[in-house]
Each structure stands twice: as structure tokens, then as C-alpha cells.
UniProtKB/TrEMBL annotation:
Pathway: Protein modification; protein glycosylation. One of its GO terms (cellular component) is dolichyl-phosphate-mannose-protein mannosyltransferase complex. The chain crosses the membrane at residues 112-134, 154-174, 204-225, 259-279, 291-310, 612-631, 652-671, 677-698, 710-730. The keyword Cell membrane does not apply. Belongs to the glycosyltransferase 39 family. It is found in: Endoplasmic reticulum membrane. This is Dolichyl-phosphate-mannose--protein mannosyltransferase. It comes from Pisolithus tinctorius Marx 270. InterPro entries: ArnT-like_N, MIR_dom_sf, MIR_motif, PMT-like, PMT_4TMC. Residues 343-397, 412-471, 481-537 form the MIR domain. It is an enzyme of class 2 (transferase).
Length: 752
């Protein structure tokens, strides 16, 4: 290289998992050209007034010409038209707007709810709804319900706007990865006319914000990586790094799928640190600075951002709502209807409520409805809300002929370990009872039915008797381990006659029991599901006025935060029921079927991808795997392919995008929960970028004009394919023949 020529530092992709030779471990890899510029780059430098061999460094390595910015504006206008066209149609609820529209109403009315997704995307939609005057009264109850006094267009504009904003991010990301302008244009227009992404972004759904923040994170990380190769620890370096951390926090605050984006950035960061560790020019002190800077910005900042979203969530949802039942009693104390202080002592004659320790702590409950089968006696259930039907009177069951203990005048008799008691339901005056009859749902030999039995004046029989077995007490109250104390003692109730234990589990009874939770008497009871505690106890006649009172401890933010994470995880893992339009991950790359969103009057909104874009992306992924495998085999035979600078550049570029694809796709194979085609969208984004990178490599030897012409042909095919299925995007009328002609695969189940 001549002394008067300055070598170009190319924009460097974040390193993926590619196996490059040691000579290619330079960061960034050096180029073989003496001036470091290809034909496009030399033209670009000349347009900026630079002489041969000189190229100015732009922030984040984004050397974008003024002509490209004008082109991006045109692309943005096109993307806006595509995503905003007739966004007010239909004027009724579509697919999962049932959930996410309803959640916006809950936020506005400050009523607590539980969802399996973090709050950021829902908060953005709620902000639009609030600004445009939504009062939260509309219930979004069912698909097809017409909107009344709902600013649904404004709410739909949030995901639509973020869908539009994803397009320039894809363009800038590929330019930051040193791809040609024509390549970046191809990716941005493929995303613009991808039917599935367009459909998903036009409704009150969370996937468009998720894809946007995924794209934003990757763009910012590419910019940071370029700054890292240019001038580490500069002001711009810190700016890109901090912004990457904030975006990581945002993507995981939309959906937990954002963890896959964190994994993508994490893998590349670990690899970069590993390469720096092996660089003798980097001192241990400097390497430590690299490590701690990344730990702060890529771990601490995302965590703080994520937790901040939940703090906002808690601040807004300060009132009791339909999510109360999922939370602990301590948590519910913060929701505006806290429990008043209650008496600590429990004795014969106390009126109490009893809660299950496990299964989100429902109340032991009865009501004046009988089992339709079995004994036909009164139902005993677990009910999640406070109610007068949760009240029980503790009576003695130890004396012959059942003489009632005069608890109003006789000395107070506390409930101790081994106490034999009856529990009388106060509202219906029936005893908690069990016998050798199978339960209505858990019809197995080791489970007995639990029922309400007896009548006013009837003392009952031995099947009403239960033995209290104290399991543990509060470590700060030694007495609570010897006798039952409110909130502090966990105990089991053993049936006196059969030896089974009062038990409940996450099994719902049918509609005849109002979908409440089943309670049985289990001879093989799991300990966790057979533990109970007293939540409230009325003042016993023998207790003094100043008797000890207790209440739940009010939890702080961290306690509430961790509890909600556990509830979200548990609820998410239980979403295993089949859905008529669910699908498994193996079918997604091949676009085997879509999702029916809405049907009315021979019009339909059906989530299906653009087959040309979709299958091209899948072909590109397969092509990369085959070519990479072939290069590995050639390397084993002694070939020096990976010493070729150009090949190394594309290997690192495609390796990074392929890593992102795999980390956003493969984890779904480990999930047994309900899955849908839209779960593939973040992986699809990487696949489309990979398609463009493959195009960039395949056309790298062509003249720029010819390469642009090839790109235009591909774009035209994508647009025509989009148009063929556009009626399913916009819910436009179409004929039976057009519908039938659009069914390219028999598994595409468009409704008619």
C-alpha cells in the first residue's frame, strides 16, 4: 500500500458464529484493495468531494449519500400508504384486539389485570387511546363486535407507525453492515410488501412493536460495532452503546421473545470480548474497560428499563380488577381494597376464612348449589375473591354424642396440632364433609368428594370431622407453630374417618360450578396442595378488646415485581390448549398455514405471508447453511477459501444474520405452549436481511446498474405477489374464483 493512500475502515458487522481462519480475526477484517473502496464506495466518496483513497467516517459507519436519504423518504411514503390504507376498516374487533384493546381499557380505568406479556407495547397503545379520549368502557368482548366510542384508528396507528419505522431501520442496518444501496433497498421493499407483517401492523397487536424494537436494537448494535472498530470509548461509542442497551430493554419489555434479541447481542458481544482477550495489543486494563462498559450498558441498563416499565404498570393499575385472583394476598393489599386488621387467635367458636397456600391461594368456599352427580350434595370449591360464602364457623368434634362446646362462656379453647374440629359453612349452615364417593372431575380411587352436608339443627356425623395437623408457623411467632394463628400458621386438614387430606389443584370445575376450582380429599396428597392457612378470624367472645391483631405485610416494588414475573411465567406455561389456527415451528419457514383474523360479508382478514418473500428468505437460510458447510469441508481439505478477504466479509455478515435468525427461531421448538405463525416474525426479519446479504454477495461482481435491475425485478415480483393476497390484508371484497386461485397450498384454509 502506498504511503499517500489511507486504507478504508469498512463498516464492520457484529461478529457472528462463523468459523473464520485466524487471519480473518482482525476486527474489522482488512480489505485487499489498495484504496479499500469498491466501485460503489468510490462513487459515493466522489459525491462527497473526497479524492481517491479517502472516505469520511460517518457516525455508526453509516456513509449515506443525500440521494439515499431522498430514496428512503420515498420508501417511507410507500410503506406508510401500504400500512395505513383503509386502516379504519373493519370498524369492529379483529383477532387478539379482544385482549390488547381490553387491556388499554383496564389501564385507563386503573383496574388491575394480568397478562403474559410485559407492559411497554400495551402502554404505547394505551397512551394513544387516552390522548384521543377513550374512556375504557368498551369491553372488546368478542371478534366482530362493532366499536362504539373507541378511538380504534388512533390505537391501530401505534403498531402501524412502528411497522413503517421498521423499514428504514432495515435499510440503515444493511448499509451499516457495508452492503450496497441496492441491497438495502431490496430488503426495505421486501419488508414493505410482506403481507404478514403488514397485516399484523394494522391492528391493536403487540408483534409490530416487538419487530420494530428488534430492528432498532440490531441497527444500534451494528452502529456501536462500527464505532468500536473505529474509535472505542469515544463519545459516539458510548452513545451507540447506551442506546443499544435502552433498546434491548424496550424489546424485552414488549414481549419475552425479546430475550432472543438479547441473546443475539450477547453472543456477539461475548465473541468480540473473546477476540479482544486474544489480541496482544489490548492490555488487561483496557480489556476490563471493554468488559465493564458492555456489562453496564447491555445488562444493567436493559434490566433497569424493564423494571421501570413495571413500575409504571403498578403506578397506573392501583385499583382492584380481574387480575387480583392471580396475585397473593400481600400483593392485593396494594390494590385499593386492602384487608382490615384481623384477630390473630383462632379458637373453637371463631368465624374464619381459609385460604389455600398453593394454586394462587383461593378461598375454601361453598354456595347453595349441588353437584349434578356423585352424592348430589352441596358444592365445595376454591374461589379467588373475597365473599361471604367463604366464612366458616369452627366447632368442636371431640365429645360423645356431639354436645356443643359452650365457647361463649367456657374457657377459650385454641386450635392446636391434633385438634379435631368441624367446619360449619355459615351462610348455608352445612358442614364440610367427605365420604367414599368419587369427585366430579378427578374421578380416581385415591380422591374422595368433598361436599357440604347437613341442615340447621343437625349435629352431623363422623364424616364431618377433620383433624388439624400444623405444618409450620411463623419463625417470629413461636406460638404459631403450636396452635393455629391467623396468617402465621400453615396446616393440613386430615379427614377423621378416611385419612385423606383436604386438597385442591389447578383443575377447574365445569359451568355448573361456575368454573371454580375443584376441592377434593386426597389419600395421596402432594404436600404443597394440601396446605391451608386462616386469613381472617372474627373476634372470639372470650378475647379481650385489646387482643392481638395481624395483617399482611405490604410488599415493596421488588416483591411485587418478582411475584408478577412468576405469575406471568406460570400463566404462560399453562397456555397449552389447542387453537384452531395454532401451528408448530417446523411449519413456519414453509408458510404452511396462516391465521384467520376476521370474516364478514365475503370479506376476510387472514394473516398469511408474502409467499415470494417468505420462501426466498427460507431458501437463503438453507443456501447459507449449505455453502457454509461446503466451505468447512473445503477447509478440511486444505483449501484457503477463508483467507479471501471478500469471502470473509460476507461470511461474517451472513453469519451474524444467521445467528440472529437461529436464536429467534429455534427456542420455539422447546415450547409446549400454544404457538402461532406471528411468533416467527422476528426470525423472518433476520431471514429477509440474510436474503439481501446473499443477494449482495451473488451480485457483487455485477455492474451497479445491472445489480439494480436484478433487484428491481425481485421487487416487482414481491409487489405483484403482495397484490394477489392484498384482499386478505385489507379485508377487501373478492370473488370466489380469486379466492380459490390464491390457494397455492391446500393447507391455506381461507374461509369463504
Amino acid at each position: 500500500m502506498s504511503a499517500g493512500v489511507r486504507a478504508r475502515r469498512p463498516a464492520t458487522p457484529p461478529l457472528g458464529l462463523s468459523n473464520v481462519t485466524p487471519s480473518a480475526h482482525k476486527y474489522p477484517p482488512s480489505l485487499s484493495r489498495t484504496d479499500g473502496l469498491d466501485a460503489d464506495a468510490r462513487r459515493q466518496a466522489a459525491s462527497k468531494g473526497y479524492g481517491p483513497g479517502h472516505k469520511g467516517y460517518a457516525p455508526g459507519g453509516l456513509n449515506i449519500t443525500s440521494g439515499e436519504w431522498k430514496l428512503l423518504v420515498v420508501v417511507l411514503i410507500v410503506a406508510t400508504i401500504v400500512r395505513m390504507f383503509r386502516i379504519s376498516h373493519p370498524d369492529s374487533v379483529v383477532f387478539d384486539e379482544v385482549h390488547f384493546g381490553k387491556f388499554a381499557g383496564r389501564y385507563i380505568k386503573t383496574r388491575y389485570f394480568v397478562d403474559v406479556h410485559p407492559p411497554l407495547a400495551k402502554l404505547l397503545i394505551t397512551a394513544a387511546a387516552f390522548i384521543f379520549g377513550f374512556d375504557g368502557e368498551f369491553d372488546f368482548k368478542e371478534i366482530g363486535k362493532s366499536f362504539v366510542n373507541v378511538p380504534y384508528v388512533a390505537m391501530r396507528m401505534v403498531p402501524a407507525t412502528l411497522g413503517v419505522a421498521t423499514i428504514p431501520l432495515a435499510y440503515l442496518t444493511l448499509r451499516g453492515l457495508d452492503c450496497k444501496a441496492s441491497t438495502a433497498l431490496l430488503a426495505s421493499l421486501f419488508l414493505t410488501f410482506e403481507n404478514g407483517l403488514v397485516t399484523q401492523s394494522r391492528h391493536i397487536l403487540l408483534d409490530s412493536p416487538l419487530v420494530f424494537f428488534t430492528a432498532l436494537t440490531i441497527f444500534l448494535f451494528v452502529g456501536f460495532s462500527n464505532e468500536d472498530s473505529h474509535q472505542p470509548f469515544s463519545e459516539q461509542w458510548w452513545t451507540w452503546l447506551v442506546l443499544t442497551g435502552l433498546s434491548l430493554g424496550a424489546v424485552v419489555s414488549c414481549k419475552w421473545v425479546g430475550l432472543f434479541t438479547i441473546a443475539t447481542v450477547g453472543v456477539c458481544t461475548v465473541l468480540r470480548l473473546w477476540l479482544l482477550l486474544g489480541d496482544s495489543r489490548v492490555s488487561v486494563k483496557k480489556w476490563s474497560r471493554h468488559f465493564f462498559a458492555r456489562a453496564l450498558c447491555l445488562i444493567v441498563i436493559p434490566i433497569l428499563f424493564y423494571m421501570t416499565m413495571f413500575e409504571i404498570h403498578f403506578l397506573i393499575l392501583g385499583s382492584s380488577g380481574d387480575g387480583d385472583a392471580f396475585m397473593s394476598s400481600e400483593f392485593r393489599q396494594t390494590l385499593g381494597h386492602g384487608m382490615p386488621d384481623t384477630y390473630a387467635d383462632v379458637a373453637i367458636g371463631s368465624q374464619i376464612t381459609i385460604r389455600h397456600v398453593n394454586t394462587q391461594g383461593g378461598y375454601l368456599h361453598s354456595h347453595s348449589h349441588n353437584y349434578p352427580g356423585g352424592s348430589g350434595q352441596q358444592q365445595i370449591t376454591l374461589y379467588p375473591h373475597r365473599d361471604e360464602n367463604n366464612l366458616w364457623l369452627v366447632l368442636n368434634a371431640t365429645a360423645d354424642n356431639y354436645p356443643q362446646y359452650d365457647y361463649e362462656h367456657q374457657p377459650i379453647e385454641y386450635i392446636k396440632h391434633g385438634s379435631r374440629v368441624k367446619l360449619r359453612h355459615i351462610v348455608t349452615d352445612k358442614a364440610l364433609h367427605s365420604h367414599d364417593v368419587r369427585p366430579p372431575v378427578s374421578d380416581v380411587d385415591f380422591q374422595n368428594e368433598v361436599s357440604g352436608y347437613g341442615m340447621t339443627g343437625f349435629t352431623g356425623d363422623l364424616n364431618d370431622d377433620w383433624v388439624v395437623e400444623i405444618e409450620k408457623g411463623d419463625r417470629h411467632d413461636k406460638e404459631s407453630g403450636k396452635r393455629v394463628k391467623t396468617l402465621r400458621t400453615q396446616f393440613k386438614l386430615r379427614h377423621f374417618m378416611t385419612g385423606c387430606y383436604l386438597f385442591s389443584h389447578s383443575v377447574k370445575l365445569p359451568e355448573w360450578a361456575f368454573d371454580q376450582q375443584e376441592v377434593t380429599c386426597n389419600k395421596q396428597a402432594v404436600k404443597a396442595n394440601s396446605l391451608w392457612y386462616v386469613e381472617t378470624a372474627s373476634k372470639h367472645p372470650q378475647l379481650p378488646q385489646n387482643a392481638e391483631r395481624v395483617n399482611y405485610k405490604i410488599p415493596g416494588f421488588l416483591s411485587k415485581f418478582w411475584e408478577l414475573q412468576e405469575v406471568m411465567w406460570t400463566t404462560n406455561s399453562k397456555l397449552t390448549d389447542r387453537h384452531v389456527y395454532d401451528s408448530r415451528p417446523w411449519s413456519w419457514p414453509f408458510l404452511r398455514r396462516g391465521i384467520n383474523f376476521w370474516v364478514k360479508d365475503h370479506r376476510q382478514i387472514y394473516l398469511i405471508g408474502n409467499p415470494f418473500v417468505w420462501w426466498s428468505s427460507t431458501a437463503s437460510v438453507i443456501t447459507y447453511v449449505l455453502v457454509r458447510g461446503f466451505l468447512i469441508l473445503r477447509a478440511k481439505r486444505g483449501y484457503k477459501d477463508l483467507e479471501n478477504t471478500k469471502l470473509v466479509k460476507y461470511d461474517v455478515l451472513c453469519g451474524f444474520l444467521f445467528t440472529g435468525y437461529l436464536l429467534h427461531y429455534l427456542p420455539f421448538f422447546l415450547m409446549s405452549r400454544q404457538l402461532f405463525l406471528h411468533h416467527y416474525f422476528p426470525a423472518l426479519y433476520f431471514a429477509i436481511l440474510l436474503t439481501s446479504a446473499v443477494f449482495d454477495f451473488a451480485t457483487s461482481t455485477l455492474r451497479p446498474r445491472i445489480r439494480l435491475q436484478v433487484a428491481c425485478v425481485l421487487i416487482i415480483i414481491a409487489v405483484l405477489t403482495f397484490d394477489k393476497f392484498s384482499s386478505l390484508v385489507y379485508g377487501s371484497p373478492w370473488t370466489r374464483s380469486k379466492c380459490n386461485n390464491a390457494v397455492w397450498i391446500k393447507t391455506w384454509d381461507f374461509a369463504w
